[in-house]
Amino acid sequence: MTSPIRRLLAGRTCAAFATALIPTTLTLAVVRSGSAADLGIVLAAELVPMLLLLPVAGVAADRFPARRVVLAADLVRAAAQFGTGLLLLAGPVRIGWLAVLAAATGAGVAFGNPSARTLVAAVVPAPDRLRTNARLGVAGGIAQIAGPATAGGAVLALGAGWSSLLTAALFAGSAFTLGGLRPLHAPAARVRAGFAAELRGGWAEARRHPWFLANALAHGVWHLAAGLLLTLGPLIAVESLGGAGSWVVVAQVGTAGLLAGVWAAGRLPVRRPLYGVAVGAAAQALPLAAFALRLPLGVTAAAYFAAMFGLGVLSPLWETELQRRIPLEALGRVGSLDTLISFASRPLGLAVAAPLAAAAGTAAPLLAAAVLSAAANLGVLLLPDVRAADSGREPAPALR
């Protein structure tokens, strides 16, 4: 493994771990001295600018060197978390200021996400990308496990302010690790159009790839269904599967499945990567149906393991296919559309789960989500460019 790839893995691991610390830190800090409504304000303050700025961030990822955009995004997040730490150490929680700093963090996430994807394509040789994306997936999965536990321990032992300062240090480490990376090849000089023209060019490039649009929309359905599952699953576990501990068991088994999937992704002999993406996403229908039918705990846990294993496999495969099939000069704009659909869909699923359950019970929404998720993701296999085997060819130049 070359030095640039090691630096990439180290920096992205720092950023993933820092990102995983934030929700638990904010939740414990606000709930201790505020209310659920205050927590909703702070979390919304982070999500809204993230969604609004993603198209802008996609243009920035294609207009400027990815390492510089990632550097700026991580420094913004480091500064926002440093400010959050000082604010929490200073005294009573001030929701207004926390919301402002959360919005800055959301802006950093928006700009960092598409540029990080472009950075992988710029510094990692094509034959090494799948294995690198799989390693990044393992690091992200471990961060999702360790982050909340670390944040909770830091808040209980030292206070929420120190947890935020730790988060700031990790983002700073990511910034100075990734900011020094150099691309494999100097970017080709090109005449830059205006912002609106480049934004339209990104949409035109996305439309040039039916496989991308079909998968991005299918992933939106997947995330919507995941929001339903994360809301209704614990309720069903408490009512029918043995109490709150049963949901903990299911969640832990799912985490093991996720890590196993991302570990396996770089080792499976996949000739048609988008087949793996489609089947991996469609596997989410299994736990949706298991919870809806209130199957025994062992069966439900196994179904959730299979779904999370599928997610672990599809994530590196999808990232690698984007980096292979989408021209580098358009990857930021096209990839930001995929991220936007995913980021917006899951909160929608979380929001509509309770009203749907109140109107129709828990089984009907979960079964409907299972059918839609499976149909949407397996339906992409009907497209010829999805069924085609991996040709290894470089993508055609992007539309301007």
From TrEMBL:
Chief localization: membrane
Transmembrane annotation, as ranges: 39-57, 162-181, 216-238, 244-266, 299-318, 364-383
UniProt topology in membrane: Multi-pass membrane protein
Entry-linked Pfam families: MFS_1
Keywords on record: Cell membrane, Membrane, Transmembrane, Transmembrane helix
GO cellular component: plasma membrane
GO terms of molecular function: transmembrane transporter activity
Annotated compartments: Cell membrane
InterPro entries per the UniProt record, alphabetical: MFS (IPR011701), MFS_trans_sf (IPR036259)
Protein name in the entry: MFS transporter
Source species of the chain: Streptomyces globosus
